[in-house]
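so my prof wants the structure for this chain in the tokens format not the other one, which i didnt know existed until like an hour ago. anyway here's the sequence
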Amino acid sequence: MFQQNKCMADGCKKMALSVFNYYGELAEAESFCFEHHPDKAKIIGDVYNYINQRQKIVGLNASGITFENIDLTDKRFYGCNFQNCRFNNLHSTKFRSRMSLFDHSIFTDCAMLESNMQFTSFGGCIFSHILFTGSDMIHDNFCGIQAYQSSFDDSDLYNSRFIRSKLVDTSFRNCNIKNTMFFNLEQQNLLFKSSNMREALFDERGSEIFLKDSM
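here's what i got, hopefully its the right format
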């Protein structure tokens, strides 16, 4: 799991970003959060290089950084922190994540096909034009997300949670949604065709989606 050192800036309670030694390896040392980091360009470059040079990334804290036009194909992230990040124009396949945090991040125009993410949190994220098609996203947290014109089609979402989420023009066609929770949704044009809706968990408002989709 990533180190939970506090930012060195006076009064800041955010977690510090990862630190890299001379050889580009993760090191234990005090540092700053992205907001207070004295050399933002350098830390962004260090994080990009660290990811690009490895297939398996463990315990990286990159909270607050923007990732754009970076290829995460076949990358494997374990216990990493990507909270409050921005992900723009990513086109990757077979992205893997275990016990990593993406809470309150913004994803725009990304295709992350055939991803495999388990015990991963996307709480409060914004997804705009995102494709997770053909992915395994099991035991994941999507509570409070906002998804616009996005697709989870052909995915396994077993035991994941979409509580208090806003889902607009978003598709869950041909998905496994057994034990997946859809409570207190704000939704418009939500599609569940060919998914096992009878095994999902809906509140009374969500049951209206079930009846409409079953007709």
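also thought this was worth mentioning. Residues 40-52 form the longest helix (13 residues).
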